[in-house]
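Aim 2 progress update. The chain analyzed this quarter is reproduced below.
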Amino acid sequence: GEGRRERQQAIGALVETIERLCRQRRVVIRIDDLQWADADSVELLAALVRGRVAGTMILGTTRTSPDSPLATAIARECDLEAGLTATRIELGPLVGADALRLAEAAAGHHQLDVQATAVIARLGAGHPLLTEMVARHLAEGGELGLASLGDTGTFIRARLEQLAPADREVIDML
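Predicted structure tokens:
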């Protein structure tokens, strides 16, 4: 119908704009969190892949496994099996020295003691965003007592409670 035609026109216009940019310089198109992609987003990605200009790279990240329905749909829509170069890199949780380096970078000039490092490792649970969030919380003078709350979900809920009322309303709508 009309809505479908409008979406296709919008996708076409966006692809044309990106193609013009690609002719002027090398371009990396980064699409994060593909696990949240809807049918229109997959269609846009397919159009970008099909209309790709030499010298461009499309980088998509997702939490889904390579054999998930979403990955299969993206591969089908983008014809990844039909001669385009696709590289899949699987990443595991952030652990050990890598997690510590990220935590230290997030803490800035604040020194992390052994207790803080243990809290970061436990609450970060191998997830870079959570690791960074916990490290920043501790560096900003956050209570180590929050760590005794036990798990990542409790930590996040406690952080959300610290938001201003207007910000909290936005989160509550989600």
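The beta strands are 27-31, 56-60. The chain has eight helices and two strands. These observations will guide the mutagenesis experiments scheduled for the next reporting period.
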